Amino acid sequence: MILTYKVRHGRDFSSELRMARQVADHAVRHRTFSSKDVKHIGLKSMIANQILRKYGRNKTIKKARNVNLIVPSQGIRADHEKKTITVPCLKIVLSYQFPEFEKVNQIEVDDEYAYVSVSVPEKPLVEPTRYIGVDLNATGHAAVVGDPEAGKVWKLGKRCQHVHQKYKNIRRRLQKLGKYGMVKKIKDRESRIIRDLNHKMSRKIVEIAKENGCGIKMEDLKGIRKNKKHAKSFRYSLNSWSFYQLRTFIEYKAKLHGVLVAYVEPAYTSKTCSRCGHVGDRNGKAFKCPYCGYVENADVNASFNIALRQIGVSQSDVERDMSEGSTGAPQEATARTIRTLEPHRLFAKANSSSRGSTSAIRSPTFS
Ligand SMILES: [Zn+2]
């Protein structure tokens, strides 16, 4: 797996970045790969070559924006003992604190950070004997984990709802006062706290699965988010970025530890009785089955249903996804590239197709 860590470099590369921009402009305008053509700009040829390759080859790029310095692996040296990564052509020495890796693939540098892309070995996937179900919620505990066979339940992320509510109130107050600059700051602070909580939860969930020899089942919310009727529903719209982030964290940490993640059809997971399969009565956080008399916390019941449900999405979901150009199946692909957000800490950001998404993650540190 490729993970990208974000490390603050504390240097001024403004003139190099300006040159990089010029090289990229040249590449976009002339579709050239030849470093001779951009030699006059004065950027180190190793870096210029990478930029030419990126911007010259991609015909969809019409204009070069936010051009980073790109250093290929041959221009990078890693000292695993001293835990430093050296980039001689930019005279950068980064000390890293992220877990061990096989090799550095590439480093991109912007005005503030170095994005260090490393290859990390994945554990071979263990065939699970059973599954734990993870139910995500906007109210109460953010994640309820159920192991129906062992009859065990873990309730995680009690703070999430409070954090969201607290910062929402602060933002609203600031907006009324017209302090828009502060709104952004507060939003960032909330994201950092939620990201940290998501890291803790995802780490715990993968640990539970690993210790119990289980795979992890979650609801496939992909179709639901596309479905307008459901998108408006409270359960899936609220905090959807933090859900998405948590799911991404779980996926990539599971992958690192050889834990299988599978998705199930989300319909009726909260209304079905996990004991007898009938549709029961859900009232807030209380679930009651009129057929067999089963009474349980609604989220716990939902997590059991998720754990017991057949893997896969219904035909209609698949058809809908296919008509929209995706098959809905390759969930595992989403956690492939991760980028860190904080210097010298193991924050990472999922390099998803939507740029600037808030799905930020920290690499797992299992003790
Ligand atoms: Zn029942």
Ions, cofactors and other ligands present here are: zinc ion
Number of helices: 10
Would you identify the regions where 5 or more consecutive residues have pLDDT less than 50?
226-232, 234-238, 315-367
Report, as a whole number of angstroms, the end-to-end distance: 21 Å
The total beta strand count reads 18
Task: Note down, in words, how this protein is organized.
- The protein is of the alpha+beta class and 367 residues long.
- It folds into two domains: 2-119, no CATH class; 130-362, no CATH class.
- Helices cover 35% and strands 22% of the residues.
- The chain contains ten helices and 18 strands.
- The protein has helices at residues 14-30, 45-57, 159-176, 180-211, 222-226, 228-231, 234-237, 240-256, 298-308, 315-323; strands at residues 2-8, 69-72, 77-79, 84-87, 92-95, 103-109, 113-119, 130-136, 143-147, 152-156, 214-219, 261-264, 281-283, 286-288, 295-297, 337-339, 347-350, 360-362.
- It has a seven-stranded mixed β-sheet with strand order 2-6-7-1-16-17-18. A five-stranded mixed β-sheet has the order 10-9-8-11-12. Strands 3-4-5 form a three-stranded antiparallel β-sheet, with no helix packed on it.
- Helix 1 (14-30) packs across helix 2 and helix 3 (159-176) packs antiparallel against helix 4 (180-211).
- The two termini are 21 Å apart.
- Residues 226-232, 234-238 and 315-367 have low confidence and may be disordered.
- Bound molecules: zinc ion.
- Zinc ion is lined by residues 273, 275-276, 278, 280, 289, 291-292, 294.
